[in-house]
Design goal:
Radius of gyration: 20 Å
Oligomer: single chain
Helix content: 25-40%
Low-confidence stretches: 1-15
Shape: globular
Strand content: 15-25%
Mean pLDDT: 87
Number of helices: 11
């Protein structure tokens, strides 16, 4: 039987099914936009608001409190306090009884801290797994390129994603709330101005393997690249230059932001002006430093 046109477009090889093509695993997600569209430059060019189904309704009390806040600082303190009570994240005041060991409680704050130390560590795997679960976007890199499944790289990623150290205490629900709080804050306090997309920068050493459209080279200026499902950007192009010989500029929809500087008080990543955003295929401008 001849290979179908759809298989050719997806890059499938005769005799291999969708299981070997990780980026085809998901057609649905929890944000109501087809995964293929969400991951495309077309969405970035014409973005729309995104919400994780049921999150705000399940925590209506939190968002009612947030609506009464008059400043970004006040709202972030309300959010942190609510998360502390809802998920038991407050420090233990009384000493642990002899012979009793307090169970490690995963938290969104620890995940952000872990990402800042190593985005390819266990905390990074859990964050990428959350993006998979909520947005339907499969990661393309974790310690190594995640290509056809199965492979040693995929096994390593899946083991870290399911690690009990971070995969407990309703961690995905915590991240749902962090995302929804971020989306609430960008609408309420417009930290980037009244825009649908914000210009962000990312430094890297090698990017030819990420190119989807265009030709990599020192003369290249406009490309379409495939970024990981969760990716770090900088708000400062000079800061981005510290991370590689090349710098790309992308217009990132604010609806794809998970975290930005000053979203939370004393949060990890803030000092470096780091932004966490949902990835996919992006039209970018590239320059050599």
């Amino acid at each position: 039987m001849a290979q179908s046109a759809s298989q050719q477009e997806d890059g499938e090889v005769p005799g291999e099914g969708r299981a070997e093509q990780p980026r085809t695993w998901y057609s649905t997600n929890l944000v109501g936009v087809p995964t293929e569209l969400l991951a495309s430059p077309a969405f970035n060019a014409h973005p729309q608001g995104l919400h994780i189904g049921g999150t705000r309704a399940s925590h209506a009390g939190l968002f009612s409190l947030l609506d009464s806040c008059t400043s970004a600082r006040e709202s972030s303190e309300v959010f942190v306090h609510y998360m502390s009570l809802a998920f038991g994240l407050q420090p233990v005041s009384e000493p642990v009884c002899q012979g009793e060991q307090r169970r490690w409680r995963a938290s969104y704050h620890k995940l952000l801290q872990g990402w800042g130390l190593d985005s390819n560590g266990p905390a990074g795997a859990v964050l990428k797994g959350w993006v998979e679960s909520r947005f339907g976007l499969v990661p393309c890199f974790h310690k190594a390129r995640l290509e056809r499944f199965p492979s040693p790289a995929w096994v390593s990623y899946l083991e870290e994603k399911a690690s009990s150290r971070y995969q407990n205490n309703c961690i995905y629900q915590q991240l749902d709330l962090l995302y929804e709080f971020c989306q609430w804050a960008v609408v309420r306090f417009v930290p980037f101005g009244a825009v649908q997309c914000v210009a962000l920068w990312r430094g890297f050493t090698r990017g030819d393997e990420q190119v989807v459209q265009g030709e990599w080279g020192r003369t290249s200026r406009q490309l379409v690249v495939r970024l990981n499902n969760l990716v770090s950007f900088s708000t400062d192009p000079q800061q981005a230059e510290c991370f590689g010989d090349w710098v790309l500029q992308a217009d990132v929809p604010v609806s794809k932001l998970l975290f930005y500087p000053d979203l939370l008080p004393a949060a990890p990543l803030t000092g470096e002006g780091e932004v966490l955003a949902i990835g996919g295929d992006y039209d970018v401008k590239v320059r050599h430093v």
